[in-house]
Amino acid sequence: MRNLLLYHTEDHNLTHRKELYLAEGQPCFSGRLWVPDGLESIEL
Fold it and tell me: Which of 25, 28, 23 is CA-nearest to residue 6?
């Protein structure tokens, strides 16, 4: 399975930022999308 990490730098909508990035990325990418919260680490 392919993976894509979408790292954000936008601070305008912190409450819904993760949902919005996932909704934007899912139609374009068929693998697993990762959208970490600020300062969250992802173990590869």
Answer: 25
